[in-house]
Amino acid sequence: MTARILDGTAVARTLLEQTAERAAAFTTRTGRAPLLATVLVGDDPASQTYVKMKRSRCAKVGIESRAVELPASTTTEELVETISALSADPLVDGILLQHPVPGHIDERAAFEAIAPGKDVDGVTMHSFAAMAFGEPGFHSCTPGGILRLLDAYGIELEGRHAVVVGRSPILGKPVGMLLLARNATVTYCHSRTADLASVVGTADIVVAAVGKPELVRGAWLKPGAVVVDAGYNPGNVGDVEYVAASERAGFITPVPGGVGPMTIALLLAQTVDAAEAAEKALLPA
After folding, report:
1. Is 160 annotated as a binding residue?
2. Mind listing the pLDDT tens digit for each residue in 82-124?
3. Peptide bond into 256 cis (omega under 30)
4. Beta-strand relationship, 205-208 and 161-165
5. How many CB atoms lie under 10 A from the CB of residue 61?
6. Is 47 annotated as belonging to a binding site?
7. pLDDT of residue 285
8. Domain ranges in the chain?
9. Domain named Tetrahydrofolate dehydrogenase/cyclohydrolase NAD(P)-binding: which ranges (predicted)?
């Protein structure tokens, strides 16, 4: 068996084209482009690269970006104040706080300063609750992108057993909630899980999100399983043993070119969602 590739690059391209059309229509109606504010604290090279890439993608789809760069010495209080000001600015539609922030900052407090209607990265407790309860709201971008990718390939989720390896608040936990909302049976695995191989072997769908190179071995997989590798490690290596897994799985995401493009595409789509929602709120009842 050779797994079929879940091509995130191709699916993201379609989503970006749709987002560009919506952004252009919004600009025509309102006289301004949707605006995403990016907040970067410190000078971490990888974070700087990610922010520049996101701003470049914004420009390509007609979304304006506002860069807010703060020194590494910024305090939690100063960061919260900055984000609160962006939340109150009617010209700002979405806010992205680049993760991670310096260790002395209370990242959760900073995330919670983002107004729910501008949390286009889906990082606040409000957004997590919306995902958990199936209520309207923004999805965490990587989990939401994963579901859109699975939908694009017609992969059925209802009634299937999904194993999520990882429990981070912006990836592992929310992707499990989104799968549960789609009537999958969800098992979370983590560093304390006994006999991880056996648990993974029961899965119809595996989502690997731990940040450990090739932790999930190909031999563990149920034949025909759907494998989503949300990990990215040095050397373009994911969290799944790709070659062995691709010989056993039914579908698999490549690294790179799988989950990553979907994450950015959903961030931009949700920025336009936020702009449209704010526009609608200003219309007379």
Report:
1. no
2. 999 999 999 999 999 999 999 999 999 999 999 999 999 999 9
3. yes
4. parallel
5. 23
6. no
7. 65
8. 31-115, 141-259
9. 140-277
* DSSP state, residue 219: G
* Order of all β-strands in the sheet with 35-41: 64-70, 35-41, 94-97
- Catalytic annotation on 52? no
pTM: predicted TM-score of the whole model, two decimal places: 0.95
Tokens of 210: 């731990």
For the cut 90, the answer to whether the pLDDT of residue 46 exceeds it is no
**Catalytic residue, candidates 93, 119, 121, 229:** 121
Q: Is 57 annotated as a binding residue?
A: no
* Catalytic (active site) residue 18: no
In the block, which residue shows the tokens 């072997």? Answer: 201
Phi, then psi, of 124 in degrees rounded to 5:
-85, 165
Q: Omega of the bond prior to 100 within 30 degrees of 0, cis?
A: yes
- DSSP strands (E only) in 202-265: 205-208, 226-229, 251-252
Tell me if residue 54 is catalytic.
yes
Contact, 93 vs 278, CB < 8 A? yes
**Residues counted in the chain:** 285
Domain 141-259 is found in CATH 3.40.50.720: yes
CA angle 205, 207, 213 (to 5 degrees): 130
Rounded Cα gap, residues 142 and 57, in angstroms: 16
DSSP H or E run through 97: strand 94-97
In this structure, the strands spanning 251-252 and 226-229 are: parallel
Two structure tokens written together for 99? 């993760």
List of residues 6+ apart from 60 with CB closer than 8 A: 16, 20
Structure tokens of 244?
């062995």
* Class at the top of the CATH hierarchy for domain 31-115: alpha beta
